[in-house]
């Protein structure tokens, strides 16, 4: 039975969620700025960014176990009073990030053109995508180091420093982007590749700050900076399920981008605008989930009423997520006629935007609940369940609608109907799991399955 004392004060959730919100929003907000800057180059450049941006985002987000998995493991150790071991998780996650990031960089350069041509249907759109992607891939190891840094720092309930680090990097990118794309003074600029270079500049700053923070924490806690094969194996075991889950997202969003380009540059560009807004709000809503990950993991790591406190937290964050989702739905419904022209003046693109816009607005309350409960289950280390249900949602909901849209000419309406089905299936799955007791397993380390 849940006691009143098991409930976490709202201010404690806010203390973790408030700094996490701008951290989560910084990257998609920068991408919105990037979209607006590139939109001035025309529909082909914007469609190229849509294809390349989805490829890069899916490759890096597929490796988000470096953040979410590290948070879950570090939070349990922190809740059990083992801070040095929690910092050690950050050290090993950073080594893993560097190794995997270099692999992504090398393989990405080899496959950039064939992937862009497959998704962009050849021609000018694919050429634009390749020019952006080759430069952006230089930042892959830096993005992954930042994910690992966010992971261990959230685990020890420090969300203030990551805020400063991420804002420093993304702020520099936002300032550099218009200059590198469009030029200044007598310089004509680099065009679309300038957007990717601005990304890399900011990512270098952010990753350097996270590495510095890790080195200081390791020194203070007397933690070795050497790789530990045992910890790396444990992190990869949890990462296996999270990667499989991310593969479902990757298949869905890459398929959506590929199908959107088949309906022309205007449809692909409109899809890019609304999709970036979706990613932006998804990560803003995920601020509550980040607080849930840290607090649920710490609760389950504690020997005193850990399961009861974790269940109370699950109920709390579900309510918070629903309220935020409803608020965003109302806000962006009101902005339907005002916001799209900020991203592009192209009349053909603006004519396509409303098709996707109202699906995006209607899904916000559902997204608020789904992302909040995702945070609860991720904090509990319940990655296997999330893997299975996300794969089912992709196979039964998103992918059939996307490819039917191509076959029957449904356009963006078919693509976004698939996203609705995907979210509704996930809503049912995480709600049923949260009502059970199978996810609330206590201990400093979640037992291996």
Automatic annotation (TrEMBL):
It is a multi-pass membrane protein. The keyword Transmembrane applies. Keywords: Membrane, Transmembrane, Transmembrane helix. It comes from the Bacteria. Coiled coil: none annotated. PANTHER family: PROTEIN DETOXIFICATION 44, CHLOROPLASTIC (PTHR42893:SF46), PROTEIN DETOXIFICATION 44, CHLOROPLASTIC-RELATED (PTHR42893). Belongs to the multi antimicrobial extrusion (MATE) (TC 2.A.66.1) family. NCBIfam families: matE. This is MATE family efflux transporter.
């Amino acid at each position: 039975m849940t006691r009143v004392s098991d409930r976490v004060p709202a201010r404690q959730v806010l203390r973790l969620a408030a700094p996490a919100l701008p951290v989560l929003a910084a990257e998609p907000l920068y991408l919105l700025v990037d979209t607006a800057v590139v939109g001035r180059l025309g529909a082909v450049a914007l469609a190229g960014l849509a294809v390349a941006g989805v490829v890069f985002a899916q490759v890096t987000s597929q490796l988000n176990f470096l953040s979410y998995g590290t948070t879950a493991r570090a939070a349990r150790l922190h809740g059990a009073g083992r801070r040095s071991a929690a910092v050690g998780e950050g050290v090993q996650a950073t080594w893993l990030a560097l190794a995997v990031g270099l692999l992504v960089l090398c393989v990405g350069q080899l496959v950039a053109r064939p992937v862009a041509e497959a998704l962009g249907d050849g021609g000018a759109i694919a050429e634009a995508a390749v020019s952006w992607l080759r430069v952006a891939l230089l930042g892959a190891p830096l993005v992954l180091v930042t994910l690992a840094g966010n992971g261990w720092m959230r685990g020890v309930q420090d969300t203030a420093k990551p805020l400063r680090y991420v804002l420093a990097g993304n702020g520099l990118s936002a300032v550099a982007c218009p200059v590198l794309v469009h030029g200044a003074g007598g310089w004509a600029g680099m065009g679309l590749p300038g957007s990717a270079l601005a990304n890399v500049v900011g990512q270098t700053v952010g990753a350097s700050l996270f590495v510095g923070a890790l080195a200081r924490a390791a020194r203070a806690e007397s933690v070795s900076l050497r790789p530990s094969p045992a910890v790396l194996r444990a992190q990869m075991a949890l990462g296996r399920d999270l990667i499989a889950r991310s593969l479902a997202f990757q298949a869905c969003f890459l398929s959506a981008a590929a199908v959107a380009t088949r309906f022309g540059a205007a449809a692909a560009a409109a899809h890019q605008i609304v999709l970036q807004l979706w990613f932006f709000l998804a990560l803003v809503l995920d601020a509550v989930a980040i607080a849930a990950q840290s607090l649920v993991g710490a609760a389950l790591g504690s020997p005193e009423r850990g399961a009861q406190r974790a269940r109370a937290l699950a109920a709390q964050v579900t309510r918070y997520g629903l309220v935020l989702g409803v608020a965003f739905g109302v806000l962006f419904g009101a902005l339907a006629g005002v916001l799209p022209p900020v991203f592009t003046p192209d009349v053909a693109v603006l004519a396509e935007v409303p098709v996707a816009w109202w699906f995006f607005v209607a899904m916000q309350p559902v997204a608020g609940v789904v992302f909040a409960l995702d945070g609860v289950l991720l904090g509990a280390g319940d990655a296997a369940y999330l893997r299975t249900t996300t794969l089912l949602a992709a196979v039964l909901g998103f992918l059939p609608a996307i490819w039917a849209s191509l076959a029957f000419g449904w356009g963006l309406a078919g693509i976004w109907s698939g996203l609705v089905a995907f979210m509704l299936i996930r809503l049912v799955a995480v709600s049923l799991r949260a009502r059970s007791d199978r996810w609330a397993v206590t201990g400093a380390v979640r037992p291996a399955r």
